[in-house]
Amino acid sequence: MKKRYLLAPGPTPVPPEVLSAMSEPIIHHRSPEFATIMKEALDGLKWLFQTESTVMILTASGTGGMEAAVSNLLSPGDRAICVRGGKFGERWAEICEAYGISPINIDVPWGESVQPEAIESALKKDPTIKAVFVQASETCSASVHPIQEIASIVRKRDNTILVVDAITAIGVMDLPVDAWGIDVCVTGSQKALMLPPGAAFVSVSDKAWHFNEASKCPRFYFNLKKEKAKAEAGQTNFTSPVAMVIGLRKVLEMMREEGLQNVFARHERLADATRTALRQLGLRLLAVGIPSNAVTGAYLPAGIDGGAFTKKLREEYGVTVAGGQAQLKGKIFRVAHLGYADTLDVITAMAAVERGLRAFGYPLELGAGVRAAEEILFGNK
After folding, report:
1. Percentage of the chain surpassing pLDDT 90?
2. Which one, out of 74, 81, 253, 297, has a CA that is 20 to 30 A from the CA of 109?
3. How would CATH label the architecture of 5-11+260-377?
């Protein structure tokens, strides 16, 4: 028997309590019983997003939420800034192009964080820009963009909205939607929300709803105005992901019990331990800007292929981590520490990384990374 450890940045493990709740007999999505569950889940999402706005539930991956943000708020011919610091930043531009919106791309080297001044300069240069699209946490580069600073720039402009992909940020880092002035915030079920893939969650500010009134992009399934009206009645516009919503209610109950600031502190501690351990092993970290507390990336030593390395960890040690994407394919690996993750997940990951590096001939002191992680996670206990 080999126990499996899922330590990739999505999908992430689902707690047993949540799996149990989701396995209960299915109920009808238009029933009063489901409406009660739905309203409790929606109330929890407002707490998690730190917003007074309705958070809508879409039966889709996070990319569906991203597409809805574009198609519901802009019109063909509009211009929008897209911060491209990884594959998901590039996705914003690709979605814009699909709807006839002209992206003004701000390219950021992978692993770096965008400079807010670059966004401010672009907005001053072209006052017709309608939106700024950016990631809070760019998963493939294991880095974070300074959302608070960006929001402070965009919120001063009545004709521009800030749209944030927070798919690996909500439930990981403090991202107070209303306090910072984030107009649209998108996340997904399979990250820090500790659910299977298949649901996206979107909040829209009052300012952004005015953009919705003027938007001329075609839409049918992803119609946020209709979703908002249905959400307020405890439903979704089309068939609801019933089991997902039941699981979501349980997840939010668990997060409330832990406390939001404690959730953030736990992720910060796990990330700090992971980064410290990898540095102790002599590895160069991917993030050179603001590192993400959701996932840590590191370059592999010369001569070690990333695909072979992640395969060895998965097949021999039962530990699934992520490799690199695009130009980083085969060069890096990424260890996630978000959602249903705790101290021993980091210890397990570091032990597997050490054994994997040793198997490929990298000289290291076994236990050095584990010990460095333990010193942060356990202190003098």
Report:
1. 99
2. 74
3. Alpha-Beta Complex (3.90)
